[in-house]
Amino acid sequence: MTAERAEDPAPEFVRMIRARPVPPEHAEVSANADERAALARRFGVRAVDAMRAEVDMAPDGDAILATGVLHAELTQACAVSGEDFAVRLEEPLALRFVTKAREVDPEEEAELPADEPDEIEYAGDMFDLGEAVAQTLALAIDPYAEGPGADAARREAGIVDEDSPKGPLADALAALRK
C-alpha cells in the first residue's frame, strides 16, 4: 500500500512582489474579509478581525531584506474558560528573501541568532510577501492565551483559592507542609 502525499493547500494571503530588477522600497499589505476568515481557520482562532503589514524592502546582495511591522486584531478563545476575547498583536518583521537558502546539516542543530532575519527561499523573479506575513502572524499567536475571565473560571472550578499564595515557590512550600 502506498501513502498518497497530501497536496499543500494554496496560501490564503498571497501578495506577490517582483524582486527583479528592484523591489519597491515600501509596501503595505492587508488581508480582506475572505482571506482573514481563511487565516482564522488555518491558525485555529475564532477570527482574524484585521491584519496588515507595513514593510520596507531593500536589496541585500542577491537577497531582498524586508523589515517592518505586522498589525493584527484577533478574536481568540481563552485557554481556561473557552470564552472569546480580543487580542491585539504588533509584531516586528525581519525577513530575508533569498534565491537559495543556507545549507543546513540535518544531523546538526541549527540555531540562528535572534537578531538575524528569517530566510525565505523563492524561485523566479517574484516572492510572496503575503504568505511570509501570514507565517509571522501564526508564530505570534499564543495558543494558550488567557482571557479576562480565566481567573474567575479557575476559582469556579475550584482550581485556585483567592487567599492562598500563588506561584512555583508557594506550590513547593505547600507540598512540604503535607
Automatic annotation (TrEMBL):
It comes from the Bacteria. InterPro entries: YceD (IPR003772). It holds the Pfam family YceD. Residues 149-178 are annotated as: Disordered. This is DUF177 domain-containing protein. The lineage of its organism: Bacteria, Pseudomonadati, Pseudomonadota, Alphaproteobacteria, Sphingomonadales.
